[in-house]
Design goal:
Elements (H helix, E strand, L loop, with lengths): L5 H9 L8 E10 L2 E8 L12 H5 L9 E2 L12 E2 L3 H19 L19 E5 L10 E4 L8 E8 L4 E6 L45 H10 L14 E9 L3 E9 L2 E7 L11 H7 L5 E8 L9 E11 L5 E8 H16 L19 H4 L7 H46 L1
Antiparallel strand pairs: 1-2, 1-14, 2-5, 3-4, 5-6, 6-7, 7-8, 8-9, 9-10, 10-11, 11-12, 12-13, 13-14
Length: 426
């Protein structure tokens, strides 16, 4: 039986409503309103997450559900609903109080059930983006496979040259004990000073912890018990490195390209999004029209279909949201991911491109390496599928943070010029 060309299969799937297909929707939030460095990514929206508000809020009557007043039991009220709706002032006062209480809960990961490392909610996928603070250094971000900053690390990514390039480092070695210490940094006993010979760059332990630096508990444990991380015989190396590049800032301002295992990927701007109907929906759509992006991969049809040229498959889509805390929604189309993996599995699992698959000596392999992995793959195919999803999420976060930081710089420059014009005119 002849295999259908990938162009026809992709077109048939794309003709469907991707939002209704096998899709995972990840909601991207700033960890709190004042923090633009750390992000939490969940499949459950904040407004739909069942949480228990603090007791102080419950005592004041600001519960998570609206309260109603009972009608007096009289003949006139016989047969009616038995409740009356609160006044408009009471409704909005309670609503704002509940929203404020929920925000306080979300700002503390230990109160968020989605960030529970022991018993997270079922069917809830989550990620956490953490930027460690170490004065005098620019350490890389860590992408973690749970909704808190103590979860297993999926990859490290480091911005360079004013968002022109992001370096992503993947590998199960990141989940081994001691490689990432309590500060969220690669410990110097497992890395090198400048990342020589393809190793991870390590950061030394300091004798003094400065204000607001990461790893307060880790620092005092080191002072009390001494250095608890042993020196590694072999320095840690990432399995593969991906470079996400902002190729044409002045021509294609919303395009980021990278190569993964020999295939060309690109985040490109798009205006084809499904905007949920809300109040002032037209205003929200107009303000964020130029902030949406989609992830495509370029593939070639096989055999006699090669003359058709390269085909583009849409793997994911990012929809920007006009909100103080929520950055947007990331939709991952699993049908398209499965199509891409099924057609190119041999090329993806073989050595080539920018992947490093080194054969290690069995005596030097950590027997707990797979046990510590956040994915725990049972086969090379499953590991490749999970790695592709991690690459999608990591590259999306690079793009999201880069776009957000660029907008912040533009606004800061705009208000600086306005202030200068006012002072000059006065």
């Amino acid at each position: 039986m002849e295999k259908a060309p990938i162009r026809e299969v992709a077109s048939a799937i794309a003709s469907l409503n991707l939002s209704d297909a096998n899709t995972t929707v990840l909601h991207v939030y700033h960890f709190n309103r004042e923090d633009s460095k750390n992000y939490v990514v969940h499949t459950l929206r904040n407004s739909l997450t069942p949480i228990v508000l603090p007791k102080k809020t419950a005592k004041k009557g600001k519960s998570d559900t609206a309260e109603v007043e009972k009608l007096p039991e009289t003949e006139e009220n016989d047969g009616k609903r038995g409740v009356i709706a609160p006044s408009r002032e009471q409704h909005w006062a309670k609503r704002f109080a509940v929203q404020a209480a929920r925000v306080k809960v979300y700002d503390k990961a230990k109160h968020d059930p989605r960030a529970d490392p022991v018993s997270p909610p079922p069917d809830c996928e989550s990620y956490f983006v953490h930027l460690p603070t170490l004065w005098g250094h620019c350490p890389p971000y860590t992408l973690r496979n749970r909704g808190h900053k103590r979860a297993p690390v999926v990859c490290l990514f480091d911005p360079r040259l004013f968002w022109r390039q992001w370096k992503l480092e993947f590998g199960d070695v990141l989940t081994q004990e001691g490689v990432i210490d309590g500060r969220g940094l690669v410990n110097w006993r497992h890395g090198t000073k400048k990342g020589e010979n393809g190793t991870l760059k390590g950061y030394k332990d300091r004798k003094r912890r400065w204000w607001l630096e990461s790893g307060k508990k880790y620092f005092y444990e080191q002072l009390e018990h001494g250095h608890m991380i042993p020196e590694a015989a072999v320095k840690a190396k990432p399995e593969e490195v991906v470079n996400v590049k902002w190729t044409a800032p002045f021509v294609r301002a919303r395009e980021y390209n990278f190569v993964w295992r020999g295939f060309q990927f690109a985040w490109k701007g798009t205006t084809v999004v499904d905007v949920q109907p809300k109040k002032f929906g037209w205003f929200r759509e107009t303000m964020t029209r130029w902030n949406h992006l989609k992830l495509i991969v370029t593939v070639l049809d096989q055999g006699e279909h090669l003359q058709n040229g390269p085909s583009e498959i849409v793997l994911a889509r990012y929809t920007s949201v006009l909100s103080a805390r929520k950055a947007g929604r990331l939709e991952i189309f699993h049908d398209m991911l499965d199509l891409f993996l099924r057609e190119n599995l041999t090329a993806l699992t073989s050595t080539g491109g920018n992947i490093v698959l080194e054969k290690q000596d069995p005596a030097t392999v950590d027997p707990f390496q797979d046990l510590g992995s956040p994915t725990e793959p049972r086969s090379e195919e499953e590991k490749t599928a999970q790695r592709l999803k991690d690459v999608v999420v990591a590259s999306a976060m690079c793009m999201i943070m880069g776009e957000f930081q660029k907008r912040e710089w533009v606004w800061a420059l705009f208000w600086l010029l306005v202030d200068a014009a006012q002072n000059g005119g006065g």
